[in-house]
Design a protein that fits this description.
By secondary structure, this protein is an alpha+beta fold. It contains six helices and five strands, in the order H-E-E-H-E-H-E-E-H-H-H. It has a three-stranded mixed beta sheet with strand order 3-4-5. A two-stranded antiparallel sheet has the order 1-2. Helices cover 37% and strands 18% of the residues. Helix 3 runs parallel beside helix 5 and helix 4 runs antiparallel to helix 5. The protein starts with 19 loop residues before the first helix and ends with a helix. Strand 3, helix 3 and strand 4 form a beta-alpha-beta unit. It has one domain: Roll (CBS-domain).
Length: 147
């Protein structure tokens, strides 16, 4: 099964110059915790609700901070014609629950989530979640609790 068969196609994109307040309102309106960031028809990053909390709120940045200042710039993406099981494995290895989907011209065509994978291939989703759930090293909860 290919990614294109299960991905979400109607994807809203936030611009890197928009404020995080605008982005958060968009996320609330469409009930998502992840948005691709696009500029000049190019995917330049991703923004998650966690990016807003960890990089903006915890960093004492205000609501008018530009998305580009808190977004994740290293975009992990997949191609629409890739096999779903291979992408699910990568999601587990890379510890991401959502991933932009691009065509071979690297134009955004959708988003794939672990939920999409779980609905189509439950065993692959289980393996991806198991891979994500391995101890996180220096930033794990156990280490933080000892501080």
């Amino acid at each position: 099964m290919r990614v294109s068969e299960v991905m979400t196609r109607d994807v809203k994109v936030v611009h890197p110059n928009q404020s995080i307040a605008e982005a958060a309102k968009m996320m609330t309106k469409i009930n998502v915790g992840f948005m691709p960031v696009g500029e000049n028809d190019q995917l330049v990053g991703t923004l998650t609700d966690r990016d807003i909390v960890v990089r903006a709120v915890a960093g004492s940045k205000g609501p008018y901070t530009a998305v580009r200042d808190v977004m994740t710039q290293s975009v992990k993406y997949c191609f629409e014609d890739e096999e779903l099981d291979q992408v699910a494995r990568r999601m587990g290895e890379q510890r991401v629950r959502r991933m932009p989907v691009v065509n071979r011209d690297k134009r955004l065509v959708g988003v794939i989530t672990l939920c999409d994978v779980a609905l189509a291939q439950p065993d692959e989703a289980r393996r991806a979640i198991t891979a994500m759930s391995q101890p996180g090293g220096a930033t794990s909860q156990l280490r933080l609790a000892a501080l």
